[in-house]
């Protein structure tokens, strides 16, 4: 039974994911003078994630393994073609390109693709 469960899970990863977006993502930078702490958050618009168990977990795991990434919040809905990852990171440690590339290089780029990135810098109020 355990073998069957593993086989079913593995086949859902291979068959369940759609074709990723291949191309240059649209990158938008935003500065917000709000919050209590200075931080950077990249919101990645990702194609190809079809399942919460395999796809979302894999993307989140790969992002959290990057040095300089402190938090990842996934925004997944199986009814959407495009889903999102909100990645909090340290700009002095890791580049936005490295974060983008980590998602696009999963399974040699055959599973997921980043379509757009909104990079937001939060600056605490100076008041």
What's the arrangement of secondary structure elements?
Elements: H1 2-16, E1 26-32, E2 39-47, H2 52-64, E3 69-75, E4 82-89, H3 96-104, E5 113-122
Parallel strand pairs: 1-5
Antiparallel strand pairs: 2-4, 2-5, 3-4
Provide an overview of this structure.
- By secondary structure, this protein is α+β, with helices and mostly antiparallel strands.
- It has one domain: Alpha-Beta Plaits, CATH 3.30.70.
- The protein has helices at residues 2-16, 52-64, 96-104, and strands spanning 26-32, 39-47, 69-75, 82-89, 113-122.
- Strands 1-5-2-4-3 form a five-stranded mixed β-sheet, covered by helices on one side.
- A hairpin with a 6-residue loop joins strand 3 and strand 4.
- It is globular.
- The chain starts with a helix and ends in a 5-residue tail after the last strand.
- Mean pLDDT is 81; it is low at 1-21.
Give me the secondary-structure category: alpha+beta
Proportion in helices: 25-40%
Order of helices and strands: HEEHEEHE
Mean pLDDT: 81
CATH architecture tag: 2-Layer Sandwich
SS element count, helices: 3
Instruction: Report the principal-axis shape.
Output: globular
Oligomerization state:
single chain
- Count of the separate structural domains: 1
Q: List unreliable stretches of 5+ residues.
A: 1-21
């Amino acid at each position: 039974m355990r073998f069957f469960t593993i086989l079913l899970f593995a086949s859902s990863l291979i068959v369940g994911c759609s074709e990723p977006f291949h191309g240059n993502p649209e990158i938008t930078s935003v500065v917000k003078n709000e919050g209590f702490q200075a931080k950077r958050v990249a919101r990645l618009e990702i194609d190809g994630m079809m399942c919460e168990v395999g796809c979302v977990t894999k993307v989140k795991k790969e992002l959290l393994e990057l040095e300089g990434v402190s938090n990842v919040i996934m925004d997944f809905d199986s009814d959407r073609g495009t889903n999102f990852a909100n990645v909090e990171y340290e700009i002095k440690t890791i580049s936005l390109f490295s974060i983008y590339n980590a998602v696009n290089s999963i399974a040699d780029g055959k599973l997921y693709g980043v379509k757009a990135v909104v990079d937001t810098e939060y600056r605490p109020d100076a008041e």
